Amino acid sequence: REVPAVFGSVFHPEMPVLAFENGAWQPTRWQSSSEFTLAPGAHSLHYGSECFEGLKAFRHADDSIHLFRPNMNIARMRQSARLLHLPVPETDAFQAALVELVRRASDIIPDAPASLYLRPTLIGTDPVIGKAATPSANALLYILASPVGDYFKTGAPMKLLVETEHARCAPHMGRIKCGGNYASALAWVLKAKEEHGANQVLFCPNGDVQETAASNFALINGNEIITKPLTSEFLHGVTRDSVLTIAKDMGYTVSERNFTVAELKAAVEQGAEAILTGTAAVISPVTSFVIDGKEIPVASTERGTAIRKAVTDIQFGLAEDKYDWLVRV
Fold first, then answer.
1. What gap in Å lies between CA 58 and CA 77, rounded to an integer?
2. 193 an active-site residue?
3. Which of 25, 50, 267, 325 is 20 to 30 A distant from 133 in Cα terms?
4. What pLDDT shows up at residue 1?
5. Residues of the chain with pLDDT under 50
6. Are residues 104 and 179 in the same domain?
7. String of b and e for 245-278 (b: at least 16 CB within 10 Å)?
8. 215 assigned to some structural domain
9. Are residues 144 and 168 in the same domain?
10. 176 and 225 co-located in one domain
11. 163 and 299 inside one domain
12. Secondary structure of the chain as H, E, C letters
């Protein structure tokens, strides 16, 4: 089964659409994913009333198809909707649409190590440009399905620029998965690529280590995994939660605490590893950091690679799913 060369560029021809109209969610309808009609005055286009999710479905060796922790992504989108004052999707209808989409797209789900990426998107649709200070009363939830390979190529360099002057986004918006947060980070990511050849930016405002533009971050210092505790400042990642759960069973001590760039720098210079986590990124070991203009290599990616394997083995049915994370379609 073909895996497109560009991540997220090819879509299953159908998508489910759930509309919130007249104060209620309407039955799911199906339409072409190749085009979409939206009023030019739609609230989401002018005032950022949109949020989205990213999750995957995996083909196992026996040809069965499984979603990975969809309940977590549904819960996170419901949280994003509440925080953006958008209509909150109904859990059962949302999951039913996801499952049916995966079922309809089963023929294009590639074999391991590729997968089917799912992109639920919620947008405010009120066609009124005079509602800058008023939420959208109507909304659409639609879901795209795209066969994908790796977002970050396995084994490729992963250089992070450590940014201490700027935050990824407004602190109260960090746990919302919305386009505005990615737009907020884009200028610093492009600058880091141009000036340092960096792949990503690790945002550490005032020295507080947080996350990159598109992934959570963790430091692996010996048998301790250190990552920032959950706050409103950054996205509460599903892969992050999975990694921390599995790491405890692998014998790691998990420390969810604040830590500084100075601590990060000292640890890496003494042999610590680091990883990025996310649905698209999976688990990507970091190979170097640029701190205060100086590149500091990471001595090893062995531990990060082993954690990645522990997660992906569950996703692809190569290890026991003792956490009940997989939902068979």
1. 21
2. no
3. 25
4. 86
5. none
6. no
7. ebbeeeebeeeeeebebebbbebbeeebbbbbbb
8. yes
9. no
10. yes
11. yes
12. CCCCCCCCCCCCCEEEEEEEECCEECCCEEEECCCCCCCCCCHHHHHCCEEECCEEEEECCCCCEEEECHHHHHHHHHHHHHHCCCCCCCHHHHHHHHHHHHHHCHHHCCCCCCEEEEEEEEEECCCCCCCCCCCCCCEEEEEEEEEECCCCCCCCCCEEEEECCCCCCCHHHCCCCCHHHHHHHHHHHHHHHHHHCCCEEEECHHHECCEECCCEEEEEECCEEEECCCCCCCCCCHHHHHHHHHHHHCCCEEEECCCEHHHHHHHHHCCCEEEEEECCCEEEECCEEEECCEEEECCCCHHHHHHHHHHHHHHCCCCCCCCCCEEEC
CB within 8 Å of 163: residues ≥ 6 apart: 188, 192, 201, 202, 203, 204
The residue type of 20 is F
For residues 131 and 206, membership in a common domain is answered with no
Task: Return the CATH number at 100.
Answer: 3.30.470.10
What local confidence, expressed as pLDDT, does residue 169 receive?
95
The CATH code of the domain that includes 256 is 3.20.10.10
Task: Report pLDDT for 57.
Answer: 98
Q: Is residue 7 part of a domain?
A: no
Looking at 56, 153, 159, 177, which residue is catalytic? 177
Q: Write down the pLDDT at residue 224.
A: 98
What is the C-alpha to C-alpha distance for residues 71 and 60, in angstroms, rounded to an integer? 20
**C-alpha distance from residue 76 to each of 96, 120, 236, 238 (Å):** 17, 11, 8, 9
CA–CA separation, 9 and 64 (whole Å): 24
Burial (CB count <10 Å: 0-12, 13-18, 19+), residue 203: buried
For residues 218 and 228, what is the distance between their CA atoms, to the nearest angstrom? 8
Same domain flag for 74 and 191: no
